[in-house]
Amino acid sequence: MRAPQVDKITEKLRDKSYEPAGAPMELFAYATHDEPDGAVGWLESIQATVAEHMPGSQFSRVHLFHVSFKRHIWSSD
After folding, report:
1. Rounded to two decimals, what is the model's pTM?
2. Could you tell me if 13 and 47 are in contact, meaning their C-beta atoms sit under 8 angstroms apart?
3. CA separation, residue 6 to residues 3, 12, 20 (Å)
4. Complete DSSP assignment for 26-40
5. Is residue 39 part of a domain?
6. What is the pLDDT of residues 19-58, one digit of tens each?
7. Fewest Cβ atoms nearer than 10 Å: which of 14, 17, 26, 45?
8. Per the domain annotation, does 17 fall within a domain?
9. Are 73 and 31 in contact (CB under 8 A)?
10. Residue 54 sits in which domain range?
11. What's the total number of domains in the chain?
């Protein structure tokens, strides 16, 4: 089990092109760790990636969830 892959989040923010349905788009990523904070530094890594690649992306926000615990972990501003 592992956290969302930072490279996948980067790809969606930077490289992919989407056709929005007339509303702001928000990216939903999920973690599947045994514990919501199971890997040291992974949340900080995701936050830094979002801060770097969000400007210019098609997304207005990013949300991070923990699947197994059905818990919201973080949302970008």
Report:
1. 0.81
2. no
3. 8, 10, 23
4. EEEEEE--SSTT-ST
5. yes
6. 888 889 999 998 776 555 566 788 888 999 999 999 999 9
7. 17
8. no
9. yes
10. 6-12+25-75
11. 1
